[in-house]
Amino acid sequence: MPPRSARLARLSRSVTFSACHRLHSKSLSAEENLKLFGKCNNPHGHGHNYKVVVTVRGEIDPVSGMVMNLTDLKEYMQEAIMEPLDHKNLDKDVPYFSEVVSTTENVAVFIWDNLQKLLPQGILYKVEVHETEQNVVVYKGEQTIVE
């Protein structure tokens, strides 16, 4: 009987969190911020119910039949996403965003970096952040090389 080849699969889990933020760059003037971010630059901020879909990938374990135990993934997402972000003012309560504009792109990077610290090496495939039903950011850990 020939050896069975390993089967790869992707496993996704989603969570929803609520947070507020203000799109504002310290590198821009008040006028430039207002022009760039419009109503999202409101000094009092605005809120979203963010949906985050985390996808991991790997070989299906022949014994457990799983890429990863969903209970473990749920706990990692609780620690990496829900605890630092849910019901928070991103700009005031999350130190990362004191120097980084709290765009959905940067929220996705923040979540990716937090998950990378917890998940087994190389298993994280994709982080999707749905700011609204119409606005979605997908981040797969890609970086550009700065010379």
Automatic annotation (TrEMBL):
Active-site residues per Swiss-Prot or TrEMBL entry: C40 (proton acceptor), H87 (charge relay system), E131 (charge relay system)
SUPFAM superfamilies xref list: Tetrahydrobiopterin biosynthesis enzymes-like
Cofactor binding note: Binds 1 zinc ion per subunit.
InterPro entries: 6-PTP_synth/QueD (IPR007115), 6-PTP_synth/QueD_sf (IPR038418), PTPS_Cys_AS (IPR022470), PTPS_His_AS (IPR022469)
Annotated EC: 4.2.3.12
A cellular component annotation (GO) from this entry: mitochondrion
Entries under PANTHER family matching the protein: 6-PYRUVOYL TETRAHYDROBIOPTERIN SYNTHASE, PYRUVOYL TETRAHYDROBIOPTERIN SYNTHASE
Pathway(s) annotated for this protein in UniProt: Cofactor biosynthesis; tetrahydrobiopterin biosynthesis; tetrahydrobiopterin from 7,8-dihydroneopterin triphosphate: step 1/3
Family: Belongs to the PTPS family.
Keywords carried by this UniProt record: Lyase, Metal-binding, Tetrahydrobiopterin biosynthesis, Zinc
Any single GO BP term: tetrahydrobiopterin biosynthetic process
Enzyme class, UniProt record, top EC level: lyase
Ligand binding (Zn(2+)): H21, H46, H48
Function in brief: Involved in the biosynthesis of tetrahydrobiopterin, an essential cofactor of aromatic amino acid hydroxylases. Catalyzes the transformation of 7,8-dihydroneopterin triphosphate into 6-pyruvoyl tetrahydropterin.
PROSITE patterns (alphabetical): PTPS_1, PTPS_2
Cofactor(s) the record lists: Zn(2+)
Name listed for the protein in its UniProt record: 6-pyruvoyl tetrahydrobiopterin synthase
GO molecular function: 6-pyruvoyltetrahydropterin synthase activity; metal ion binding
